């Protein structure tokens, strides 16, 4: 209770300061970090950087709905960290969101808004609207003043029709018929500006988005691998992952498996575990 | 809102007002990417490079090989800043001609390497931003001296290639393995495979691979396509 908490604070006041947690980022460690960074730089090292996706994402509104597209490469500096990551995130059954920028930020932001939107939808008893998701995302990103590095392409179909938004890390949004984001956005936008028409058919819209992402994949070093598509119409969502395997892994001619005994064994201890097998589950690892 | 940028290196808060003229540095260098690799066996040498020329997140060219043929027995691989690569190879070719005219014979691989060292050191205080690897044959190559298979990777994906070559050619970190000498076919196959793997993970490596194979018959070229993304 409040009274007991006050008592606890007074007792604890002799040991530490009782402070309410205000929410948002805590900037307590900035001074310490600045000093540490200066020390590290003096020794010649650099502090680790956040992993960014270096991406091409885009979306287009067509006759019956929206088509969202994304590449599947995640980079850490100029090294590929993930060759097949998923950048089209679920927000609600009729709303999906592509994310560019810091990988952790796009993942967590879309999950938080998806969760809040589900609760909101249960409260209203209605299917969520794209504008609602847009409002929630922009209000969160503005609250964090751009420190959450998430650049999003939000699309979906609700009772008012198909809608497409682009959302910037500082919290500004644009409502447009076609949008691109990420390091490959210029390459993708070049394709859109050439071939976009209002009220396209589904196949034409899918081809356009596929070609826009392909432009990003082949001309931007931060984007690569495959093309994922998400086609959202009234009552149906086609999550096509992958829609197009634009880059196959090169086939190696040599055999690089090692025989048993290649790694020298220094010592060996065998401890038998007397266990009873209740259930066996095998999950293969991707060793390609 | 207080951020890390508000604090200077000594931990004190930086004063937020315009202090006067701000220095903007001009960098004479750019990084154009690319990976080079050279392997030398008993009677052959290979110099391989990818053919992608990039800058920042863009690609300038998909067909810009980094192997330059110097003589019938020597090839050099240069990657790094493309402007310096071109200038350096121009200077080397000029010096080769000068040597040939005054000494009435072509420079040997070892001589070219020694000369390159002096050319690079001449620019010790404004260096050529180039990673060089020279591969070649010596005419009277004493087979005892060149018994050991040598290999070196340079350029953007060198840190990925070098450990694999240490393992496959140098047989490092392995036990109970038959240490066969490297044949020309195995070396070419290995070079193709390592570049395929480098193109998977390094964004600067890709498009195509050019291998220059140097034997006593001369220099033969092989081009293999790589990932274009």
TrEMBL record, chain A:
It is found in: Cytoplasm; Nucleus. Residues 246-282 form the Proteasome beta subunit C-terminal domain. One of its GO terms (molecular function) is threonine-type endopeptidase activity. Keywords: Cytoplasm, Hydrolase, Nucleus, Protease, Proteasome, Threonine protease. One of its GO terms (cellular component) is nucleus. SUPFAM superfamilies: N-terminal nucleophile aminohydrolases (Ntn hydrolases). One of its GO terms (biological process) is proteolysis involved in protein catabolic process. Pfam families: Pr_beta_C (PF12465), Proteasome (PF00227). The active site is at residue 55. It catalyses: Cleavage of peptide bonds with very broad specificity. Its main location: cytoplasm. Belongs to the peptidase T1B family. Component of the proteasome, a multicatalytic proteinase complex which is characterized by its ability to cleave peptides with Arg, Phe, Tyr, Leu, and Glu adjacent to the leaving group at neutral or slightly basic pH. The proteasome has an ATP-dependent proteolytic activity. Component of the proteasome complex. This is Proteasome subunit beta. It comes from Cyprinus carpio carpio.
From TrEMBL, chain B:
Pfam families: Proteasome. InterPro entries: Ntn_hydrolases_N (IPR029055), Proteasome_bsu_CS (IPR016050), Proteasome_sua/b (IPR001353), Proteasome_suB-type (IPR023333). Keywords: Cytoplasm, Nucleus, Proteasome. The 26S proteasome consists of a 20S proteasome core and two 19S regulatory subunits. The 20S proteasome core is composed of 28 subunits that are arranged in four stacked rings, resulting in a barrel-shaped structure. The two end rings are each formed by seven alpha subunits, and the two central rings are each formed by seven beta subunits. The catalytic chamber with the active sites is on the inside of the barrel. It comes from the Eukaryota. Non-catalytic component of the proteasome, a multicatalytic proteinase complex which is characterized by its ability to cleave peptides with Arg, Phe, Tyr, Leu, and Glu adjacent to the leaving group at neutral or slightly basic pH. The proteasome has an ATP-dependent proteolytic activity. Its main location: cytoplasm. GO terms for cellular component: cytoplasm; nucleus; proteasome core complex. The gene is LOC109091361. It comes from Cyprinus carpio (Common carp). GO terms for biological process: proteolysis involved in protein catabolic process. CDD domains: proteasome_beta_type_1 (cd03757). This is Proteasome subunit beta. The lineage of its organism: Eukaryota, Metazoa, Chordata, Craniata, Vertebrata. It is found in: Cytoplasm; Nucleus. Signal peptide: none annotated.
